[in-house]
Amino acid sequence: MRSLTTEAGTTRNPAGAGSEVEPLSAQEILAQALEDHHPRMALACSFQKEEAVLVHMLLELAPDARVFTIDTGVLFAETYATWRELEQRTGVEVEVIDALPVDGRPWGADRCCGERKVAALEAMLGGLDAWVTGVRREQSPTRAAAPKLGWDADHGLWKVSPLADWSEDRVWEYLKEHDLPYNPLHDRGYASIGCAPCTLPGSGREGRWAGQDKTECGLHSER
Q1: Is residue 216, in this structure, part of any structural domain at all?
Q2: Residue 97, helix vs strand vs coil
Q3: How far, in Å, CA of 222 to CA of 178, rounded?
Q4: Helix, strand or coil, per DSSP, at residue 119
Q5: Residue 27 maps to which CATH number?
Q6: Is 198 marked active-site?
Q7: Could you tell me the pTM of the whole model?
Q8: How many angstroms separate the Cα of 127 from the Cα of each of 8, 35, 59, 122, 140?
Q9: Residue 82 backbone dihedrals phi, psi, to 5 degrees
Q10: Domain housing 193
Q11: pLDDT tens column, 169-209
Q12: What is the dihedral of CA 210, 162, 37, 44, to 10 degrees?
């Protein structure tokens, strides 16, 4: 795999770089991204099963790889427990980005997500050259064309999604093979896990903001 940057230090064409990495494994993509961007690269972790896989992969490649989470203050108790267990089992030190405090959900889901998540993410990404996500194409129609590597024009950095072409079965196989902790809500029918007030059991992302015309919080949406 060729570097994401040219010898002159400028970034390669995003579309070209994305097509280059498409045949590569998740570990190969992470290895090159670390070589190019560490320590100015970090995994955005919401303590779902995909992030458990990525934390394990990253730490095998670089024990000091960076992982961050946005604590909205209204996560499930199970999510906080998974967070603690993942740190204890893997040794990862999760960087915590606290969301701006808001009272309840006075503005509706979009504004609540904007205040609790998107603003916090923007502050974090401002100090990075690349961020890693657990986005997979089969999670929802809005993610069906997600590249493994793309330029995040909204935030001005590379977005690395090494598991984009992974199936859910493959994620579970990796977790079991490496005996990794995962959020127990997955065993109770929660395919996607966000804040407790807005998340119900369901396949894909149908349990997120159920009954509303909304499937993304804004972290992975193009403006």
Answers
A1: no
A2: strand
A3: 34
A4: helix
A5: 3.40.50.620
A6: no
A7: 0.83
A8: 22, 17, 21, 9, 29
A9: -65, -40
A10: 14-198
A11: 999 999 999 999 999 999 999 988 988 878 887 766 555 55
A12: 20
Count how many Cα atoms sit within 13 Å of the Cα of residue 84 in the half-sphere of its side chain. Answer: 5
Beta bridge pairs of residue 160: 132, 149
In a domain, 212, yes or no: no
**Residue 29: C-alpha distances to residues 34, 112, 199 (Å):** 9, 34, 31
Which residues on adjacent β-strands are paired with residue 153? none
219 inside domain:
no
Sheet containing 66-71: give its strands across. Answer: 94-98, 66-71, 41-44, 130-132, 157-160, 149-152
| pLDDT confidence tier of residue 13, bands split at 50, 70 and 90 | low
Q: Determine, yes or no, domain membership for 161.
A: yes
Among candidate residues 45, 112, 195, 217, the one labeled active-site is: 217
Q: Looking at the 3D structure of the chain, how many domains does it have?
A: 1
